[in-house]
Write a structure and sequence with these properties.
Blueprint lengths: L5 E5 L2 E10 L4 H15 L7 E4 L9 E8 L11 E5 L2 E9 L6 H14 L2 E2 L4 E6 L11 E9 L1
Antiparallel strand pairs: 1-6, 2-4, 2-5, 3-4, 3-8, 6-9, 7-9, 8-9
């Protein structure tokens, strides 16, 4: 179940990131790897997230960037990069429940954008507030969905 959309202004965010084409079932492995990396470095500063770059989502092969906020810059290590996510205006909705029902949250947020006259200007971001790493019961999972917008 998703709530109603809202507008948030986000500041720049320094993150550790891994961007690759992957089947969606590998996403949790990449998240876990990146979370371990920032914990080992002692620089973790927030919830993991994923940015979905493809115009049409394909669960078999998707261009996904996994990110974890960090406190300090660090030198790139292999496929792990340090970068800044830009500040901006975002439409946000909170999805509560399993990931197989998250499409409803996207649909509600896109409808909200259209109703309120916002133009989406970039790829969506999911922030995993509560997920399988901290809660086994899918109905208790919480994911924030963000779209950068103008308007």
């Amino acid at each position: 179940m998703a709530g109603t959309g809202e507008v948030r202004r986000l500041e720049e965010l320094r993150v550790a990131s891994i961007r690759q084409d992957m089947p969606i079932h590998e996403l949790s492995e990449v998240i876990n790897r990146l979370v371990r990396f920032v914990k080992e470095k002692g620089i973790g500063a927030g919830k993991p997230m994923a940015i979905y770059y493809d115009k049409e989502f394909n669960p078999e092969r998707a261009d996904i960037e996994v990110c974890v906020p960090v406190t300090n810059p660090f030198p790139n290590e292999g496929d792990i990069r340090c970068r800044i996510l830009p500040a901006g205006k975002y439409l946000v909705i909170t999805h509560e429940g399993a990931y197989d029902t998250i499409k409803a949250g996207y649909e509600r947020l896109l409808h909200y954008a259209q109703e309120e006259g916002y133009r989406i200007i970039g790829p969506p971001r999911e922030v995993y507030i509560v997920g399988p790493g901290s809660q086994e019961t899918p109905s208790a999972w919480k994911t924030e969905i963000y779209f950068p917008v103008l308007g």
